[in-house]
Amino acid sequence: MFQYYFLLGVRSLRRNPALTALMVLTLAIGVAASVATLTILHVMSGDPIPDKSNRLFVPLLDNGPTEGYTPGDKPNDDQMSYPDAINLLNGKAGERRTAIYGIGQSIEPERKDIGAFTAGGLAVTSDFFNMFDVPFLHGQGWSPAEDKTGADVIVLSRKLSAKLYGDANPVGQRMKLGGLQYQIVGVLDTWKVVPRFHRIIGNDDGAFEDEDELYLPFASAIRHEFQRNGSTSCTGDVTPGFQGFLNSECTWIQFWFETRTAADRAELQSFLDSYATEQRKLGRMKRAAPNMLYDVREWLDHLKVVGNDSKLSAWLAFGFLILCLVNTIGLLLAKFSVRAAEVGVRRALGASRREIFTQFLIETTVVGLVGGVLGLLLAFGALALIAMQSKALTVVAHMDWFMMLTTFAMAVAAAVLAGLLPTWRACQVTPALQLKSQ
């Protein structure tokens, strides 16, 4: 019987084609607007590393001055000073740890058809790649021993490797970066993390920036005095020179811990508190502010990666969908009202109200399916237009299988919801009155 009613629903689309087209278009526009906004919110608020997001932690230590400070104020900055980063690296807390800062250096390719250009990347420690499950296409990262010596080795992104060496495996070759020779030890596979949680601060597009182009040892970048590419916050006097800057309380480094299990968070917090206590004995961290630990999801919330504007846009889109549903209800009432005679005849021939209700509800489901297909196409178009607005939106304005299925489910659910009142009204037709009017 369901198949029969479904075929009747398909045929009913040809009745009053103008009215049917208006219903489908109204429903499709409402669904497309909602799904496009919901897709962006879904991508922005997703867990970028679900297998270990509760084992990766950002520590925040407040090393700001006491002048103008009121207990309970926000920390001095969301980054860390060089002395603290080195101390935490040497402290051996957690299973892995890494310090990160952005760099930008000129590359002088050996290929004559490519001129010198500037590439951006990160100075990190060897634990970085295992901590964040970074995929390799060729080679591997460098060793902890090379961390200690500040070896001049480098890992390239797949895109940069293709630009410099084509499809060849460049591992073992040397390249010129910032006027210095670096040996290539690895090439990453495509690694697009959304949101880009490991390095949000100091980027133009924050959590939705494209991949970094290269990675080199933190100690090597420091040894060669590579300038930082990112934000820096200084609250006190800084001695002139690069070493003076390193010794200062300026915050410019992102730090991450990885613990063996989520339960080790308490132990890591205890280590952080003990470290801050020792530093206060040395005359630092005079604010005595609480020392914070954020896992990945908490870190994204702390930095407000999904802002109130994005949430408000989603609510407005759903409000628009409700408005479209109200219009669809009116159109369905008009469509079903002209079929009162048909309903009356069917009731007189023995059809129950339940059968009439089922038939008309399946017809509205067919409208929902057609509206879902059109809504999906309109949603793809809307996302393409949104992606054209900025580089950051290009990263988030794409639809996955989950959102595709959501589009159809939303369209069908919206159509069924809109069809409940018109279908119920159709079932109330009195057969005797309709037959008498004929």
From TrEMBL:
Top-level lineage group: Bacteria
Annotated localization: Cell membrane
Main location: membrane
ABC3 transporter permease C-terminal domain segment(s): 316-430
One matching Pfam family: FtsX
Keyword set, alphabetical order: Cell membrane, Membrane, Transmembrane, Transmembrane helix
InterPro entries per record: ABC3_permease_C, MacB_PCD, Macrolide_Exporter_MacB
Membrane topology reported for the UniProt record: Multi-pass membrane protein
Occurrences of domain MacB-like periplasmic core (ranges): 20-264
Transmembrane portions of the chain: 21-44, 312-336, 356-389, 401-421
Entry protein name: FtsX-like permease family protein
